[in-house]
UniProtKB/TrEMBL annotation:
<feature type="domain" description="Xylose isomerase-like TIM barrel">
    <location>
        <begin position="37"/>
        <end position="344"/>
    </location>
</feature>
<dbReference type="InterPro" id="IPR050312">
    <property type="entry name" value="IolE/XylAMocC-like"/>
</dbReference>
<protein>
    <recommendedName>
        <fullName>Xylose isomerase-like TIM barrel domain-containing protein</fullName>
    </recommendedName>
</protein>
<dbReference type="Pfam" id="PF01261">
    <property type="entry name" value="AP_endonuc_2"/>
</dbReference>
<dbReference type="InterPro" id="IPR036237">
    <property type="entry name" value="Xyl_isomerase-like_sf"/>
</dbReference>
<dbReference type="InterPro" id="IPR013022">
    <property type="entry name" value="Xyl_isomerase-like_TIM-brl"/>
</dbReference>
Length: 359
């Protein structure tokens, strides 16, 4: 069932609603055209395109090609897929706003691996130029083992600067993952972006990653860090509002976290950080308390949106156990949940903004 879009209010015009394709189902289970249809029919205006979805779509083009050539490479089929995806989105009134995630790029100790990533980045730039007229490539902070990457900030800055130069004029957004090996807070990512100082380099702010790092502990009986977590989060949000240049914020991502049993097997996957396991299995759309959402997402979103005065794309990025279910209805169900969540978060932000103006 599709959730009917709510007529836009004056507040809606500040931000444009979007959704990540990963939030609509697993790439190997749910086709990208089905996801695009679900997003469009449930009021979304933009898509964060996950490369896994693009690659799966490219493979489907290869399988159905009447005169498939063994000489054609995966990259060539991805170029075909990019053209087809743009056409699909244009017909449905959607804009591709980002291609992601370009993982494990910065700080690589092996120069050959770094060279390979630069070569892959050039391919992503080519894809981006086809997919849209104004999109960016998202680079999440690396969570490789410390034996594979450096913590040298100067080197990390140089790597992001190189990525921006290679991609230009395509933009690059850098995002701090809560489980990043060395870069795991918005402060870390903003420091690197500020120091790299490239006009096409900015940051992505993610409510889940911010709250997960500063406030949450899914393996704790309370689900949270120390009693000082609220104070620490509040102080960090005050710094964010004071320090971050909103013109360098390329996107704000929204997601909550599910309160799970600390004994949940997925939290104890050998060799995987708990926050990463939790993120991949138990994100929720904002304001889904009825499903177990409990992070202070509204506080983080209020700082990133109202506090900063940010205007632009706001995207739902949810990984969960439910996206891995094989039911064909998953894209529709998740798109409808995202639409309800968007209206709920707008109402909460409106209340906070009104309260602030009444002080």
């Amino acid at each position: 069932m599709h959730f009917p879009p709510t007529p836009p209010s004056e507040l809606d015009t500040r931000w444009m609603p979007a959704i990540a394709t990963v939030s609509l189902g697993a790439a190997h289970l749910h086709s990208l055209p089905a996801k695009i249809d679900s997003a469009a029919q449930n009021g979304q205006r933009g898509l964060e395109l996950f490369h896994d979805d693009l690659a799966q779509f490219a493979q489907s083009l290869r399988r159905h090609a009447r005169h498939a050539s063994a000489d054609r490479t995966d990259r060539e089929y991805e170029i075909d897929a990019a053209h087809a995806i743009r056409d699909l989105c244009t017909k449905r009134g959607l804009q591709v706003l980002a291609l992601q995630p370009f993982r494990h790029y910065e700080g690589l100790l092996d120069p050959n691996q770094h060279a390979q990533r630069i070569d892959e980045l050039k391919h992503w730039v080519e894809l981006s130029k086809i997919l849209g007229d104004d999109l960016f490539i998202l680079i999440p902070s690396s969570f490789l083992d410390p034996s594979q990457i450096t913590d040298d900030r100067d080197r990390l800055v140089a790597d992001l600067r190189q990525a921006a130069d290679v991609a230009f004029p395509i933009r690059i957004a850098y995002e701090a993952l809560a489980w990043g090996t060395y870069i795991n807070t918005w402060e870390d990512s903003w420091d690197i972006v500020r120091r790299a100082n490239r006009p096409n380099l900015g940051i992505c702010l993610d409510t889940f990653n911010i709250a997960a790092r500063l406030w949450a502990d899914p393996a704790s009986p309370t689900g949270r860090l120390s009693a000082h977590a609220d104070i620490d989060l509040q102080a960090s949000m005050q710094r964010l509002v004071q320090e971050v240049d909103p013109s360098r914020v390329m996107m704000v991502q929204l997601a909550d976290g599910e309160r799970v049993d600390p004994r949940s097997p997925f939290l104890h996957t050998p060799g995987m950080p708990k926050l990463l396991s939790w993120s991949r299995n138990a994100r929720l759309f904002p304001c889904e308390e009825e499903r177990g959402g409990y992070l202070p997402i509204c506080e983080v979103a209020d700082a990133c949106l109202n506090g900063l005065g940010y205007t632009g794309w706001v995207s739902m990025e949810v990984f969960s156990r439910s996206t891995g279910e094989s039911r064909p209805s998953v894209p529709d169900e998740h798109a409808a949940r995202a639409a309800r969540s968007w209206q709920r978060i707008l109402q909460q932000l409106d209340k906070k903004d009104e309260k602030l103006h009444n002080l």
